TrEMBL record:
<dbReference type="GO" id="GO:0015297">
    <property type="term" value="F:antiporter activity"/>
</dbReference>
<dbReference type="InterPro" id="IPR048279">
    <property type="entry name" value="MdtK-like"/>
</dbReference>
<keyword id="KW-0813">Transport</keyword>
<feature type="transmembrane region" description="Helical">
    <location>
        <begin position="162"/>
        <end position="183"/>
    </location>
</feature>
<feature type="transmembrane region" description="Helical">
    <location>
        <begin position="304"/>
        <end position="323"/>
    </location>
</feature>
<feature type="transmembrane region" description="Helical">
    <location>
        <begin position="129"/>
        <end position="150"/>
    </location>
</feature>
<keyword id="KW-0472">Membrane</keyword>
<dbReference type="InterPro" id="IPR002528">
    <property type="entry name" value="MATE_fam"/>
</dbReference>
<keyword id="KW-1003">Cell membrane</keyword>
<feature type="transmembrane region" description="Helical">
    <location>
        <begin position="46"/>
        <end position="66"/>
    </location>
</feature>
<feature type="transmembrane region" description="Helical">
    <location>
        <begin position="401"/>
        <end position="419"/>
    </location>
</feature>
<dbReference type="GO" id="GO:0005886">
    <property type="term" value="C:plasma membrane"/>
</dbReference>
<feature type="transmembrane region" description="Helical">
    <location>
        <begin position="376"/>
        <end position="395"/>
    </location>
</feature>
<feature type="transmembrane region" description="Helical">
    <location>
        <begin position="266"/>
        <end position="292"/>
    </location>
</feature>
<feature type="transmembrane region" description="Helical">
    <location>
        <begin position="343"/>
        <end position="364"/>
    </location>
</feature>
<feature type="transmembrane region" description="Helical">
    <location>
        <begin position="189"/>
        <end position="210"/>
    </location>
</feature>
<feature type="transmembrane region" description="Helical">
    <location>
        <begin position="231"/>
        <end position="254"/>
    </location>
</feature>
């Protein structure tokens, strides 16, 4: 496959994936804007409830990533039915997990809200919102599994329609349910449930139309759980790292943690966009290895790595150019803007490296080399990032020290990923690794 064809295939998978990835955060912005006009208590309640239910979305991302790589290998081996079966087994797992969350949250919402909110009024509103919003968990996780297997068989059009359509419907319903219908905060939760359920049903109907057996296969589900476990541990290391960075920033004062939050949220946004390249890598690399084409997988990996760096450089240029404008969109406080300015050079400098890291993460997930990714992330977090940021606190290096630690975290992972890519140990062929 020539370079132009490869680039078109990567773009053909990455661009629809980007729209799907962006749909949920954009809907959350609409939801936040609508609820914000109800007052500070409802807005705080959604913030608390959303923090808890983000865990379900995190589980969905892990499920989607694991399913994409496994389905792509089956698809690359010429067995589309087996690839769809991977999606079916992931869907059984997703639906059962979602039901457990939906039921469990009816009892757990109150204690969780009280533990997180402190304020009884906010806790009561947050618990009410969570109990309703949790009903959408089965649909949310079904959609994640559906996205996973469809990416694996390189079907990008249907996920785009399903997710975008459901979120547009919900965005239209949210203000109607909150205001004219008079449901207030509960209306926001119902709109969430509608989006997640409609999307999940669409993916379930797509499975119904496939010519496959609907019987659960416990062996396959067990293999998916093992891959999910490694991705979950990896994700946990990320969560610990980012939470620790915020904790250290808070110890330097309100302006420091606010400036850190501005740069951190923009970092998450760039990661979201770069994840689209990683998703294309999962699908294409998995398919190449499933087809027994290790050489083709290595060529794809190099091309995807190059695209990741180009995207990272583009982000660096835009972020550097916007240094005097972008932070002002988030705050007018001079002290906060000064602290954001401290983080900004580090944020710019890490972008090309981060682009390469995200791309190579996608390559190794597609190859099923998740154990290596798990171990690398844990070592980089516990051995480099956390010691660096707590040293920054002890030596009073401020936000510059925290972002230097974050940059070190990215660089360490980059070096280790390049070494892994060069050894070729990740390129194991076959329908299942």
């Amino acid at each position: 496959m020539d370079t132009a064809t490869t680039s078109r295939k990567i773009a053909g998978l990455a661009l629809p994936a980007l729209v799907v990835l962006a749909a949920e955060p954009l809907y959350v912005l609409v939801d936040t804007a609508v609820v914000g006009h109800l007052g500070s208590v409802p807005l705080a309640a959604v913030a608390v409830g959303g923090t808890v239910l983000t865990m379900a979305a995190w589980l969905g991302t892990i499920l989607a990533y694991g399913t994409t790589g496994r389905a792509a290998r089956r698809f690359g081996a010429g067995d589309r039915a087996a690839a769809v079966q991977e999606g079916l087994q992931a869907s059984w797992l997703a639906f059962s997990t979602g039901v457990v969350i939906a039921i469990g949250m009816q009892a757990a919402a109150g204690p969780l809200a009280r533990a997180l909110a402190g304020n009884p009024e906010i806790a009561g509103a947050a618990a009410q919102w969570m109990r309703v919003a949790a009903i959408g968990a089965p649909g949310l996780l079904l959609a994640a599994a559906g996205n996973g297997w469809m990416r694996g068989v390189q079907d990008t059009r249907r996920p785009l329609r399903f997710v975008l359509g459901a979120n547009l419907l919900s965005a239209a319903l949210c203000p109607i349910l909150v205001y004219p219908a008079g449901l207030g905060l509960v209306g926001s939760a119902i709109a969430n449930v509608v989006a997640q359920t409609v999307s999940g049903v669409c993916f379930a109907v797509a499975l119904l139309r496939e010519d496959i057996s609907w019987r659960p296969h416990l062996r396959v589900i067990g293999e998916q759980l093992r891959m999910g476990r490694d991705l979950l541990i990896r994700g946990g290391a990320f969560q610990l790292s980012f939470l620790s960075a915020t904790t250290v920033a808070a110890r330097f004062g309100t302006a420091t943690v606010a400036g850190h939050q501005i740069a951190m949220q923009l970092f998450f946004f760039t990661a979201l966009v770069l994840d689209a390249v990683a998703i294309a890598a999962q699908s294409l690399v998995g398919a190449a290895l499933g087809a027994g084409d290790a050489a083709g997988a290595r060529v794809l990996a190099r091309r995807i790595a190059f695209i990741g760096v180009v995207c990272g450089v583009a982000f660096a240029v835009v972020i550097a150019a916007g240094s005097g404008v972008v932070p002002r969109l988030f705050s007018s406080d001079t002290a906060v803007l000064d602290q954001a300015g401290v983080a900004w050079p580090w944020f710019v400098a890490m972008q090309p490296v981060a682009g390469l890291v995200f791309a190579l993460d996608g390559v190794l997930i597609g190859a099923g080399d998740v154990r290596y990714l798990r171990d690398l992330t844990v070592v980089a977090a516990l051995g480099f990032f956390l010691p660096a940021i707590w040293t920054a606190y002890v030596l009073d290096w401020g936000l510059a020290g925290i972002w230097a630690g974050l940059t070190l975290f990215v660089v360490v992972r980059c070096v280790a990923l390049l070494m892994r890519l060069r050894t070729g140990g990740w390129a194991v062929v076959g329908a299942v690794r």
